[in-house]
Task: structure prediction
Amino acid sequence: APARPGRKLGPVADNVGSAHRAWLDPMRTSYLASGLTLNELSIRVRFAKSKISELLRGVGLYPRWEIVLLLATELGMPNWPLYRLWSQAALEAHKSSEWINGCTDRITVTATHTTPPLDHGAFRELVENDYSLYAQVFLDDNQRDNAVADTFDRLWLSWNQALASHDLRRYAWNVLRTTVMARTPHRDGRPELGHAAFDTVTLQNLTDPAHYAQQLTETLELFTAISRLPDRQLDVIVLRRLCGFTHEAASALLGTSLATIRSDERHATRFLDSVIPPPSTEGTAP
Result:
């Protein structure tokens, strides 16, 4: 970002939630890339510099849409995805629907930038179904759809940064993963995959209660072990074993080399084999 005079913008406050950061981080990125100082931005939007600083750090009360829109317009950010993410974060901040509507009734939300860039739309059409398959492993249907929609809204807000990144696919995958994991229940710092365990084809085809209980126990043990994998290995195993992707398809989706995909799968499989004992053969004929 261009050098600028004045005090450096402070970090985002620790208590800022994931939904709030979904639009705040792209706004901070747009501000830092603009070359404007807080003082210059304050003059342009006619809002106190200290209040702008607080907004960009997530300090104080959750901001009203009027000031968010003023800043977004000055920074060249699209209105519609920003409004969607702002509204969701307002609900997370325990704001009522009446408060949200009261902020926006007097303002045209979708005045400009209502259509995403053509290449953003093409990219979404290419990967959206695959993103949904991944999200389904961790979330129920409603949460899955919201997470995927939020992912593309976040990408729309930071599309220039995504295009300028080393690999668009990897940049977008990191946005998806961050969005999905923010909604996923965690235990001991690791994501829970119990929801996916109940949806496995093996369990759905079992009708005997005893066999179902045994298979469920084994499946839950396996999914617990999968959740302990490092992030990259976890994603590869989820795509390969739970979503049915080929090595080539996983490589294309993650923006990672084919050799890396195969290496991550080998390491993950070795770990899973070490913590999940093989089926008992006691009492079987030699």
